[in-house]
Amino acid sequence: MLSSWELSSIALCNSYRDILHHNKKPFYLKGLEEDSSTMDAYIMHSLNHIFRTRDLVKKNEAKLAKLQENVKADILNSEAFLDRGFTRPKVLILLPLASVAFRVVKRLIDLTPPKYKSNVEEHERFYREFGAGVSEDKEDEDAAEISESKRSSKPSDFQALFGGNNNDHFMIGIKFTRRSIKLYSDFYSSDMIVASPLGLITKIGEAEIYKDKNVDYLSSIEVLVVDHADVILMQNWSHVNTIVEQLNRIPSEQHGTNIMRIRQWYLDGQAPFYRQSIILSSHINPDINGLFNHHCLNHEGKVKLASEYKGVLPKVVLQIRQIYERFDANTAEDADDARFDYFTKKVFPKIKDSTQGGIMLFISSYFEFIRVRNFLKSQEASFCLLGEYTEQSDISRARVWFFGGKKKIILYTERAHFYHRYKIRGIQNLIIYSLPERREFYPEVVNMLQGSACTVLFSRLDQLRLERIVGTAAAKRMVTSDKGVFVFC
Questions:
Q1: Which H or E element spans position 23?
Q2: 486, 478 in Cβ contact below 8 A?
Q3: 373, exposed or middle or buried, with CB in 10 Å at 0-12, 13-18, 19+?
Q4: Tens of pLDDT, residues 76-119
């Protein structure tokens, strides 16, 4: 029995419009039902597209087989027999982690009609490489329950997301035959490709270096799915942009395709306008917006699901004054400079003149992190670092120094928190230099504070992040109000 959400998701997918759903509750944040329904919808849609495409090709081949050779040339000029692209792969699914791909492909096998899966080739290899050794008879068990020794002090959502195979470099082709599913099929003979952005960008890079390699199997992708885009944001979103720009290009070789059967829009270089792109995320940001606005060009149109946010301020359990200070930034290009200028002229002088230590600067971007680090060095400030590229030994030392008061300031990045979820002790003064992309991180970081107040810097251009934290209505007031300081308790 399909849920109402699943039915509406399937209907939306079947419209072949481009879709951006940016408030999906992911499975690791107790959104298993909605996440599974959405996943089922795009899997069933992908299967339907693959089988309908293949059935049309087979039907036409059967017709052509009955015709005499001298008639075929004239018949092939008919649009009815234009039924294929340059290469076979029709669906590309981009996912952040092998554990997520394991979940998707496993469900893909479940949802494939029985007549097409009497045999699943390379099944054991797939479980071994993507399932991190999880045996088939335990596949439905919660990873946190498999071994008591694997439990940790990390939050439940961290364990759910990172409790499996965390490999972010993978790519697998899937081919459907009359009676079987072939995993690890050659990309050119595959119907579907499931990959991480890093895995696919590596192939693109190899094709640019070596003349005997190419990625022409991306030339005829008709359905693109980017699931868990919010997690991919924590990896490297520029890879996604590069991949999408690579899709639907005229191939460098013929690859055995009958040119007489290729649809006209492929030959005319119009394939991007016939590709459906489905982007699914727990939140939106300018990078996702930019991809959807500039690279999702489906002639059927596009759908962007609107969202209203209540905010996460009630999850701050401590009695803390949260002081939001707005700085002026006229354009997105000026925002980073404006933020840095406000910090160096309005915020840092207070830190420098204070004798109090225990100051944590939470910074969402690595580039901002480097900029602030360099500024603190120039000011000969007492500080230590806790970023995503900091060595483990340096991290341990920094936490001890900060807690013991040997270092006055600690810099902490959102990506470091995403991948490690450190609990930092000794925070007396929290300054959120830039709001986190992930709303659940805000209360987590603020609840580590042992002082009574924190300062948050924002501009009107931060509205997307701001509304996820303070709520849509409050965010609108904060970016339009004449006053520039707002306090939440």
A1: none
A2: yes
A3: middle
A4: 566 777 888 999 999 999 999 999 999 999 999 999 999 888 89
10 Å Cβ neighbour count for 219? 22
CA distances from 331 to 47, 335, 459, 460 (A): 43, 6, 10, 10
Cβ neighbours of residue 212 under 8 Å, at least 6 residues apart? none
CA distance 360 to 445: 10
Tokens 């160096």 -> residue: 344
Instruction: Provide the CA 287 distance to its chain's centre, in angstroms.
Output: 11
CA distance 384 to 395: 9
Structure token digits, residue 193: 């490709």
120: which 2 tokens?
């699943």
Give the integer Cα–Cα distance in Å for 178 and 45. Answer: 19
Which pLDDT does position 11 carry in this prediction?
A: 85
Q: How far is CA 159 from CA 97, 151, 432, 441, in A?
A: 14, 8, 26, 15
396-431: burial string, b at 16+ Cβ within 10 Å, e else: eebbebbeeeebbbbbbbbbbbbebbeebebbebbb
DSSP annotation of 31: -
Going from the C-alpha of 53 to that of each of 214, 264, 343, the distances in angstroms are 24, 16, 57
**Cα(72)–Cα(63) distance, integer angstroms:** 10
Alpha-carbon span 20 to 296, nearest angstrom: 10
**Helix 32-65 / helix 4-14 crossing angle, nearest 10 deg:** 40
Secondary structure class of 362 (helix, strand, coil): strand
Whole-number Å distance between alpha carbons of 323 and 409: 19
DSSP structure class, residue 83: -
**Sign (positive/negative) of CA torsion 393, 395, 399, 404?**
positive
- In sign, the C-alpha dihedral spanning 488, 327, 416, 171 is positive
Phi and psi, residue 438, nearest 5° = -90, 115
What is the rounded CA–CA span in Å between residue 131 and residue 102? 6
Token digits for 337?
A: 């400079």
Helices (H), 229-365: 229-233, 237-246, 264-267, 286-295, 332-342, 348-353
Categorize the per-residue pLDDT at 71 as very low, low, confident or very high, splitting at 50, 70 and 90. low
Which residues in 99-127 are b (16+ Cβ under 10 Å) and which e? Answer: bbbbbbbbebeeebeeebbeeeebeeebb
Query: Could you tell me the pTM of the whole model?
Result: 0.91
